[in-house]
Amino acid sequence: MRIKRLVILLISILIFCTHARAQLKPAIDSISDEKEAIADTLPPKREFRGVWIATVENIDWPSKPGLPTDQQKQEMIDRLNAHQRQGINEVMFQIRPAADAFYAKSREPWSKWLTGKQGQGPNPSYDPLEFAITEAHKRGMELHAWFNPYRATNDGRFSLLSPAHITRIKPEWFFTYGGIKLFNPGIPEVRDYIVKVFLDVVDNYDIDGVHMDDYFYPYPIDGQKINDAQTFAEYGQGYDDIKDWRRHNVDTLIQMLSDSIQAHNPRVKFGISPFGIWANKYQNPEGSATHGGSSNYELYADSRKWVKEGWVDYINPQLYWPLGDRSAAFDTLVNWWSDNTYGRHLYIGMAAYRINERKVNKFKNPAQMPDQIKYLRANPRVQGSVYFSSKSLINNPLGFADSLKENYYKYPALPPVMLWLDSIPPNAPQNFTATPMLHSVQLKWTTPLPAKDNETAYGYVVYRFEEKEKINLNDPKHILHIQYNNSTSFVDDSVPRGKTYMYVVTALDRLKNESDPSPTIAGTAK
Questions:
Q1: pLDDT score of 18
Q2: Where are the alpha helices (DSSP H) in 350-461?
Q3: Average pLDDT, the chain
Q4: Which DSSP helix (H) or strand (E) runs through 69?
Q5: CB–CB of 95/144 below 8 Å?
Q6: Which end of the chain is more exposed for a tag (fewer CB within 10 A), N or C?
């Protein structure tokens, strides 16, 4: 009897310890301390795995301005191929870095970082945005068009601006700060103009999302002053504090964009990537336990409000600090943002570029970035991450991109669904067949009937299983192919001769809701 009670006691202690450990947030005093607390988990079937492709100053693409069209296209293809191998499924493509354009259907001039001269188009002519969308979708990647709303120039060489540049046409819309021209957010006509620029893309391109980064009012510079006192006197009625008025100006633009995007194309996602700290606790009791700049107080960007009001579909804060950082710990900020999602998606901006920094920092530890991924996956209110930037991932610092390809992003993933935008899945594909080919199997199907919302299929997912394996569509290792186009065939050319696999195909709608599976069919290569 005593032995039995002892066994029960030991079991109870074990259960308590296991439960307590599961509830415990990892101690981040050092990377080694957290090894056991942040465990590896299986890659999820749905996860946002993004990368920023920056065009300003030719950070990522094209490698230099003025390249021939064929070379620009090849560089983009090579970049997307590399990211596909790494498991990336989202591309944030910068198409308007400074009131200019990397797309043809624009009211603003071509970017100098594309062709070498602002206003001069590519030769031979092509549309870089349209090309990037098509190539991304071929590879099972979404493409979000990344805009900088307020930056009008990135340097002080104003004499080189195109005659068609908006700073020449409407000089009264701008103030100069830090040597560059910025739109004045307090002018109503400025907000109207910016919304029209965004809608040019929403209306004319098959983008998956509209994306903005952290540049709203300018980052503070010692000795510099924002020259908007006259604008405040003209438009600031009802506000005693110019800082509150500035926040109102940014809020108004965000709400206008949200309403306009929804009205023009309710299947386009809208997301923003703000500076990682909304407010420090010493500034606001609802802020994070951090000590650094903040979007709400320095940039007049009330990023938490945008989520709370439902104006954005996702928030993507740039958390470019290591785990356990004394001023702004990655884990502290992940926890804070996950408590402030208000039902919207949370993707974390990750500092892949910091692995390349010359100075010694915690990112030089090969475990830092993988441990950040593990930390995110342990939090169910985080749906993924975005890396800055494309070049950093492709350079594979400390073998991090290899870790993505071989471990964390080993299997393909679909984007997380946004049920507030669309909760109706498409119907299943029809007439699924498998035809034996030489060392391959050709799969064909027909487009599904329209669903309740009248959508058919925007794309498809092909699954493959061993002959006697249980069919489990929740396991991403069985995803053979993801496509975002209306093609109704796929050739599996990785089948050994005489080998039989079992195949299933599902349909995806525009927002990546997935249909019921087709009937399972067998396919054998000749």
A1: 39
A2: 368-377, 390-395, 400-403
A3: 93
A4: helix 69-86
A5: no
A6: N
